[in-house]
Amino acid sequence: MHCPRCGARLAQAPPTVCAACSYASYVNPRPTGTGIIVEGGRFLAIRRVRDPRAGWWDLPGGFCDAFEHPADAAVREAREELGLSIELGEFVGMYIGTYEFQEESLPVLDCFWLATVAAGELRLDPSEASEHEWFPLADPPQMAFSTMDAALRRVAARLAP
C-alpha cells in the first residue's frame, strides 16, 4: 500500500499515518442510496448484469456521487436504472456491508427507503439489468447483497397485516 498523497510506502494497511507526509489514510464506508419500490405487498427487483454478483437479484440503487445525499442517490438511481420517477417514503435503515471491487472488499453504508412509483414507464437500462420481477415481500429471493436481505426482512415485518 502507498500513500494516496505522496506515494510513499505505508507501514501498514489503513487506517494508518504516512511516515513521509503525515497524511492520515482511512478506509471509510462508501454510502449508497436504494429505494425499495413496493406495490400491493410486492417489491420490484432487477437482475444484475455487472459484477459483483452478476445474475443475482438486486434492488435499484447505487453509490452516492460526491456530496450527494443517499436519498437523492436512490431517486437518481431509479431514474437511471428503471426510467422511473419514484417517491421516497419511510426510511428503512442503514446497514454496513461489503462490495467487491478491483480485488478489494470495500466497506459500504447501504441506506434504504420505502418507495413508490410516481411517474414513468419501466424500461431497464441494459447495462444495469437484464430483467425485472415483482416479488412478494413475504417470500423474497436471496438478493445480491446481505444488506438487501436484511432491509427486505425489516420491510416485510413492518408491512405485514
UniProtKB/TrEMBL annotation:
GO molecular function annotation: hydrolase activity
Stretches assigned to the Nudix hydrolase domain: 27-157
Pfam families attached to this UniProt entry: NUDIX
Superkingdom classification of source: Bacteria
Alphabetized InterPro entries for the sequence: NUDIX_hydrolase-like_dom_sf, NUDIX_hydrolase_CS, NUDIX_hydrolase_dom
Keyword terms of this UniProt record: Hydrolase
Protein name: Nudix hydrolase domain-containing protein
Source organism of the structure: Dactylosporangium sucinum
Coiled-coil boundaries: none
